[in-house]
C-alpha cells in the first residue's frame, strides 16, 4: 500500500505497507477527469464484513473511491443489524469467511435465504490446493487474501455483473 501525504512537511513522501494500493490510478484519474466509463466502477450497495480493521478500512476506501456505497461491519452479528436496517437493500455481501462468532458462510447462507438476489463474495486468507474443493455453495465466489485494489474491484464487478446476466 502506498500512502502519500498531500500538504505540509513531507508532502509527497510515501509509506509502504505492502498490502495493496489504496486507490488505483485508473480510479483516481477517472475521479479527477470526471470520466465515468471505467468498467470497474459501480453504484451498488456493498455490505463489507471484515474483523481486521485495517483490511476493512482499506477495502472500504477502495470501493467508495470506485463509486460504490459501502456499509461495514466487523462481525456477522453486526452485519445482520446493518442488513436489517437497510431492509435488504444490499446488492453484494463481501465477507471474510473467518469471523468472530458466526462465520461468514453462515451469514451468507442466512442473508441469501432472506434475499435470493443477494450476491456473495467470500474472502479467505487460507490457501487452497489446486483441485481441492471449497466447502459452501456451488455458486459461491472467492477472493483470496492478500489482494490488490485492482483485483478487489475486478472481482466485485465480476460478481455483480454475473447477477445481471442471469
Task: Describe the overall structure.
It is a single chain. With 166 residues, this protein is an alpha/beta fold. The protein has a domain at 42-125 and 137-166: Response regulator (Rossmann fold, 3-Layer(aba) Sandwich). Helix content is 36%, strand content 19%. It has five helices and seven strands, in the order E-E-H-E-H-E-H-E-H-E-E-H. A five-stranded parallel beta sheet has the order 4-3-5-6-7, with helices on both faces. 26% of the residues are buried.
Oligomer: single chain
Give the tally of β-strands: 7
CATH class placement of one domain: Alpha Beta
Mean of residue pLDDT values:
78
| CA-based gyration radius | 16 Å
Q: Uncertain spans, ≥5 residues at pLDDT below 50?
A: 1-36, 129-134
Strand content: 15-25%
Helix-strand category: alpha/beta
**How far is it from the N-terminal to the C-terminal residue, by CA?**
36 Å
Amino acid at each position: 500500500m502506498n500512502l502519500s501525504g498531500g500538504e505540509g512537511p513531507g508532502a509527497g513522501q510515501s509509506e509502504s505497507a505492502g498490502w495493496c494500493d489504496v486507490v488505483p490510478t485508473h480510479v483516481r484519474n477517472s475521479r479527477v477527469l470526471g470520466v465515468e466509463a471505467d468498467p470497474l466502477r459501480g453504484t451498488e450497495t456493498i455490505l463489507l464484513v471484515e474483523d481486521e480493521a485495517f483490511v476493512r478500512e482499506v477495502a472500504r476506501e477502495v470501493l467508495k473511491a470506485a463509486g460504490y456505497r459501502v456499509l461495514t461491519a466487523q462481525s456477522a452479528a453486526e452485519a445482520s443489524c446493518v442488513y436489517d436496517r437497510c431492509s435488504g437493500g444490499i446488492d453484494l455481501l463481501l465477507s471474510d469467511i473467518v469471523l468472530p462468532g458466526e462465520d461468514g458462510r453462515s451469514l451468507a447462507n442466512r442473508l441469501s435465504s432472506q434475499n435470493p438476489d443477494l450476491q456473495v463474495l467470500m474472502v479467505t486468507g487460507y490457501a487452497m490446493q489446486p483441485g481441492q474443493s471449497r466447502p459452501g455453495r456451488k455458486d459461491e465466489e472467492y477472493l483470496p487474501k492478500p489482494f490488490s485494489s485492482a483485483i478487489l474491484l475486478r472481482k466485485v464487478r465480476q460478481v455483480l455483473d454475473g447477477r445481471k446476466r442471469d
